[in-house]
Amino acid sequence: MAQALAPALEQALDRPGQDRPGTAGHDHVLKTSRAHLSADHLRLLAQGAVRIIQVGGFIGPQACGIISRGAVALGYEPYLNVSQVRRIGMAYYETGHEPALVERYFATARQCQERLRQACDPVGSPVDTARCLLDETWPAGAHLQTLAGRKMFVGLSRMVEPRTTFLAHHDVFADDAPGMPESESVLAQFAANVYVRMPERGGELLMWHATMSVAEFDARRQGAYGIDPRALPPPDVVLRPAAGDLLIFDARRLHAVAPPEDQARLALSFFIAYRGDDEPLTCWS
Amino acid sequence: MMLPTSEWMSVEGELNLRNLRALTAHQVQVLRIPRFVGSAACADLAGGLRSTGYSDYRNAPSVGRIGMSYFETERKPEIVEHYFATALANVSLLRMACAPHPFPVDTLRCLFDELWPAGCGVQVLYGRKMFVGLSRRMAPGVPLLAHHDMFGRHAPGTPEAASLVSQFAINVYVEVPEAGGELALWRDEITDAEFLERRGPHYGIPLGELGPPDFTVKPQDGDLILFNARKLHAVLPGVGRDRLTLSAFLGYRGPDERLTVWS
């Protein structure tokens, strides 16, 4: 299958006017546009042939301004289990296997969904557009993830404040929802982020090629939610998205965010599960 | 089939699972969600759609549209090919026409996916994604003739059409005339063979050839209305200004099956 996709990779990486593989700092990044995002691109990501799909200008500057102001007005609050990271909505990761928090996550899912739309008003939620595009692009479609028959929330908004980081971590649905057919069936987990505000300096996405077992990751994070990037070798991929970009990347690999220097970085984020070429993609936060 | 009067009804409210279930169970015939799109957004959408430009249906002149209805293909291979070849570009065109507001059909697709237990996705036919979100413009004085919508006529012998239990029409009203432009529905369902015979050379049955409608709804700007598309329905002529809508079909295959949408 990797061979069958080679022409798609060539074409995607060779599109005129865009960075070619080998351009400093942009190895492993497949650049495309909203109109050209294809199922082949997602397959390449699932196979590990690329690390990041960069959809440039997924939303315009006007929408970025409206959404970031709307989100700030709505108010970011700390993660329940990671006080340094602020968000609107609730990540399933925050439930930490606590039944009461799992209940709270599902009970507030629809409300969180509507609050995100409200924050974006009068422009559209880019997460809605992305979900529709994935459904149109992927042969078997894309839909909202359910867990034990309940709909998950999708479209967390997160803030990385100046001089703070997201520690290096990986995202593994089966770690957050162990023993569930919905999580155990995931073959690849992508993170999707729409950047609505970017600092002038800093705020890069840092990625490492290495995958780490959950056991090793847990041993190395020493009680923190992730590993200090300074304790790791230099990242293999460094990408500074522009405001308005959508990045879809392989969330099973270690990744981190470099500290923004001048202003907070705001992004809308969700996960995409891949379970094979003929299975629907699913989305959640 | 005659329905007791009590079941021949319209429900106004919010889009939720209870109302969707009542619609799919035919407990309500018309589900109306007022102010699905705000009035300021409606004005912007109308401007964006007009500047994108309407062109006439291939087989229903005097009805303008952006995008293409599968009904227009009439099973002609080259038109079917054109429909699929332009499907996703047309969705993108409508998204751009609505920008910076959300394309209401996208929001609706997400809401169906969030509300319906088995989710919702774009209808696939012959292994290809269908178009969804047709915008239609009816000029003042022009009715939309009475018709019913039967996916099976346009996609005969396909599992996608055969598995359909019900087909609902979805309309988001972006601009409606002050007077006229009502959605008219008839209680009786007729077979497709009878419909094709009665419509003769037209795309639908002229209103004068039917008795008065059993039910009419006067949409307001921003309304979302869903109804059973297998009932005969028509649009009465509007007065004064255009009637602009975004429309799609909703395919229902059972309580545990995914909903699908297409135009």
Write up what this structure looks like:
The complex is a heterodimer of chains A (285) and B (263). With 285 residues, chain A is of the alpha+beta class. Chain A has one domain: q2cbj1_9rhob like domain (Jelly Rolls, Sandwich), CATH 2.60.120.620. Chain A has eight helices and 16 strands. Chain A has helices spanning 2-13, 39-47, 61-74, 99-120, 126-137, 173-176, 181-184, 214-221, and strands spanning 29-32, 52-55, 77-78, 86-88, 142-144, 146-147, 150-151, 156-160, 166-169, 188-197, 205-211, 237-239, 246-250, 253-257, 265-274, 281-284. In chain A, strand 1 (29-32), helix 2 and strand 2 (52-55) form a beta-alpha-beta unit. Chain A starts with a helix and ends with a strand. Residues 14-25 of chain A have low confidence and may be disordered. With 263 residues, chain B is of the alpha+beta class. Chain B has a single domain (9-56, 78-257), classed as q2cbj1_9rhob like domain (Jelly Rolls). Helices cover 27% and strands 27% of the residues of chain B. Chain B has seven helices and 18 strands. Chain B has helices at 17-24, 39-52, 77-98, 104-115, 151-154, 159-162, 192-199; strands at residues 10-12, 30-33, 55-56, 63-66, 120-122, 124-125, 128-129, 134-138, 144-147, 166-175, 179-180, 183-185, 215-217, 224-228, 233-235, 238-239, 243-252, 259-262. The longest helix of chain B has 22 residues, at 77-98. The A-B interface holds A 34-35, 60, 62-63, 66, 110, 113, 117, 120, 122-125, 128-129, 131-132, 135-137, 139, 141-144, 146, 149, 151, 280 and B 38, 40-41, 88-89, 91-92, 95, 98-103, 106-107, 109-110, 113-114, 117, 119-122, 124, 127, 129, 258.
Q: What would you give as the CATH superfamily of chain A? A: q2cbj1_9rhob like domain
* CATH architecture call of chain A: Sandwich
Instruction: Tell me, rounded to a whole number, the average pLDDT of chain B.
Output: 93
How do the SSEs of chain B run, as a string of H and E? EHEHEEHHEEEEEHHEEEHEEEEEE
Uncertain residue segments of chain B: 1-6
Name the CATH superfamily assignment of chain B: q2cbj1_9rhob like domain
* Structural shape of chain B: globular
Instruction: Tell me which protein chains meet in the greatest interface and how many residues each side has.
Output: A-B, 30 and 29 residues
What proportion strand of chain B? Answer: 25-35%
Helix content of chain A: 25-40%
Radius of gyration of chain B from the CA trace?
17 Å
Determine Rg of chain A (CA atoms, Å): 18 Å
Count of discrete alpha- or pi-helical segments spanning 4 or more residues of chain A: 8
Profile the largest sheet of chain A.
Answer: 10 strands, mixed
Give the distance, in angstroms, between the N- and C-terminal Cα atoms of chain B: 27 Å
As an assembly, this protein is heterodimer
CATH topology of chain B: Jelly Rolls
How many domain regions of chain A?
Answer: 1
Mean pLDDT of chain A: 91
CATH class of chain A: Mainly Beta
Q: How many β-strand runs of chain A?
A: 16
